[in-house]
Write a structure and sequence with these properties.
This protein has about 220 residues and is an alpha+beta fold. The chain contains eight helices and six strands, in the order ααααβααββαβαββ. Helix 1 runs antiparallel to helix 2, helix 2 packs antiparallel against helix 3 and helix 5 packs across helix 6. Its EC number is 2.7.7.65.
Length: about 220
């Protein structure tokens, strides 16, 4: 029986597919428990728990973080060194689903998530906020840099060769960017400000980034 347990553990370390790691750890833990090797059984159960916990914070479709992770992480981030939150929405995504089908729509969501996660600062992260909405959280950046990061993400999406997925397909995003740099700012207020700015970007014609300084709301204009 011991040989079976070692063989299974070797299979794990040899690189089993990631989706099977949870069940594999649980199986190996059961094998070691039957042998009375409680220490090694416990180690594999802890690994299974870590995998399950990490999986609960990831969006199952896009593999980006999910709303639960955002709700847990955002309130603990300090604004003293700058904290930017951008809410991003895919423009006319219902038209994509209605025209090309939900399977291609899912592929679009995955590709957009990948593009949004490029070139983020070290502590920054992307989370799927819900449906076709994503949140970019950028700790430790000043307002001008936050604008550059979000505008670069918008540009990557707009210039991506979407026709390679489906001829005629075009995908753009709109973004509302809220920035805080001093004093306590609640996560809920930060998200609400970003959401209001997102609608300003939509009203301005979509495929735009809206942000607010001390005096007024700005919408980045461009030609794509």
């Amino acid at each position: 029986m011991a040989e079976v347990g070692v063989a299974a553990e070797d299979e794990l370390t040899a690189g089993a597919p990631a989706p099977d790691l949870l069940s594999l750890h649980e199986t190996i833990a059961g094998m070691f428990a039957k042998q009375g090797d409680w220490r090694r059984a416990y180690e594999h159960l802890r690994s299974a728990l870590d995998i399950a916990r990490a999986g609960s914070l990831r969006d199952t479709l896009t593999s980006s973080y999910n709303r639960r992770y955002l709700d847990q992480r955002l309130p603990g981030l300090p604004a003293a060194r700058g904290l930017a939150v951008a809410l991003i929405d895919l423009d006319r995504f219902k038209h994509v689903n209605d025209t090309y089908g939900h399977l291609l729509g899912d592929r679009v969501l995955c590709r957009v998530a990948d593009l949004l996660q490029e070139e983020l600062p070290p502590d920054g992260f992307c989370a799927r906020y819900g449906g076709e909405e994503f949140a970019l959280v950028l700790p430790g950046v000043d307002a001008p840099r936050a604008v550059r990061i979000v505008e670069a993400a918008r540009t990557r999406v707009a210039r991506h060769p979407w026709s390679e997925l489906q001829p005629g397909l075009r995908v753009t995003i709109s973004a509302g960017l809220a920035h805080a740099s001093a004093g306590p700012v609640s996560a809920q207020r930060q998200l609400l400000r970003a959401d209001n700015l997102l609608y300003a970007a939509k009203r301005a014609g979509r495929n735009k980034v809206a942000y607010h300084d001390r005096e007024t709301t700005h919408v980045i204009t461009h030609s794509e």
